[in-house]
Amino acid sequence: MRVRLAREAMDCPDEWMRLNRMVMLCENSRHEWLADNPEEIHGSSWCRQQINSPAGDFNTKVLQEHIRWAAYPKDRHEITVCLKSTSTTELSPADALARSSAARYSVSS
Question: Which residues have a Cβ under 8 Å from the Cβ of 93 and sit 6 or more positions away?
Answer without folding.
Answer: 9, 15, 18, 19, 22, 81, 83
